[in-house]
From TrEMBL:
GO terms for molecular function: transmembrane transporter activity. This is MFS family arabinose efflux permease. Residues 1-325 form the Major facilitator superfamily (MFS) profile domain. InterPro entries: MFS, MFS_dom, MFS_trans_sf. The chain crosses the membrane at residues 31-48, 60-79, 85-107, 128-148, 160-180, 187-208, 220-244, 256-278, 290-317. It is found in: Cell membrane. It comes from Arthrobacter bambusae. Keywords: Cell membrane, Membrane, Transmembrane, Transmembrane helix, Transport. It is a multi-pass membrane protein. GO terms for cellular component: plasma membrane.
Length: 342
């Protein structure tokens, strides 16, 4: 259900945002979050049970160093579009980002109550899920951003039509995600996860071949079907592997790491996709140039998805299969016999 609602929310957001931009203004797309947020605030006390209170200290230095580090890194990557990698501003920002993130890790090692307990990385399945999610979402954000531009600027869709153009992905995403519980009873979760990333990769690479002569059906809609199926398989499983085996007192931190790698992945992923698009030489046709930029960005996304698949195969898959075999051995082991007193 989590994977289905997340995927549908992203796609429906494009449809609703496109409708608002078409009929009112692009600014209305930002305002739509206000009534939704207000409704969530009002309904949360009724449907979400209150958690118990616990004494603690906020890891202010950890939060500050992580925020500044990621911000500097993203700024440095995006700055390469205008200034290049050798620019003093780029070098300074990227270097500062790396140093601040190293400082963040050192702070977390010593903090009494860290916002990112490093012990959560002791599990190969959790670590793999964090890294794979970072890469997967980094690729997907570029897909949404650049495919929208292709639909409008190359195929000539208006904002509403562009939003509706994502519906093939939404429908397949929902159908596949709803079938995940049945798969989990028959297969180790790492197998459909790897399959989902592979299917997403196939769809992304297919979509990266688009050009000025591409038709919506064969150039966009059919690749979207693959991407939707892959996301339906992968998204919820990346979440479940991100919290699997975490002790109760670390459950909140594990969930927080899932969302942190999600958000940081989208920030850095979009920055990298924009840089890749900016490397495309300018041509006499603006439409052809944009189509080539979309292809370059989605090709980069395909490479990032390949890395996500490699992480899944190297960390999550073997650890998950080993855990499943160990569980099967425990189930078939004979119960210990009590000796009778003599």
């Amino acid at each position: 259900m989590y994977g289905a609602t997340a995927g549908i929310g992203a796609s429906l957001g494009l449809v609703i945002g496109g409708a608002l931009a078409h009929w009112i203004s692009w600014r209305a797309g930002f305002f739509v979050n206000v009534p939704i947020g207000a409704a969530m605030i009002a309904l949360a006390p009724r449907f979400i049970p209150e958690s118990g209170r616990a004494r603690g200290r906020f890891d202010a230095f950890g939060a500050l160093s992580a925020t500044l580090g990621v911000g500097a890194l993203v700024f440095g990557i995006i700055n390469t579009v205008d200034a290049g990698w050798s620019s003093p501003v780029t070098v300074t920002a990227v270097s500062a980002g790396v140093v601040l993130l190293v400082v963040f890790v050192l702070i977390e090692r010593r903090a009494a109550q860290p916002i990112m307990p490093l012990r959560l990385f002791a599990s190969r399945r959790r670590t793999g899920a964090y890294v794979a999610r970072f890469l997967y979402l980094g690729a997907m954000i570029g897909f949404f951003f650049f495919t929208t531009q292709f639909l409008q600027e190359v195929l000539g869709f208006d904002p509403l039509q562009a939003g509706l153009g994502f519906l093939p992905m939404t429908a397949v995403n929902f159908a596949v995600a709803m079938g995940i519980p049945r798969l989990m009873g028959k297969l180790p979760g790492s197998i459909p996860l790897a399959a989902g990333i592979l299917i997403t990769l196939a769809g992304m690479f297919w979509l990266s071949r688009v050009g000025v002569d591409s038709a919506y059906l064969t150039g966009v809609a059919l690749p979207m079907v693959l991407i939707g199926a892959g996301q339906g398989l992968a998204f919820a499983l990346l979440t479940s592997f991100g919290i699997i085996g975490a002790p109760a007192f670390d459950a909140g931190a594990a969930s927080g790491l899932v969302n942190t790698f999600h958000q940081v992945g989208t920030c850095l992923g979009l920055g990298i996709a924009v840089v890749a698009a900016a490397t495309v030489p300018t041509t006499s046709s603006a439409v052809a140039h944009l189509a080539a930029q979309v292809g370059a960005a989605l090709t980069t996304g395909s490479i990032v998805l390949l890395l996500a698949l490699a992480v899944t195969a190297a960390l999550i898959l073997p650890a998950d299969l080993a855990a499943r075999r160990a569980g099967a051995r425990r189930e078939v082991a004979p119960a210990p016999q009590l000796e009778t007193a003599r």
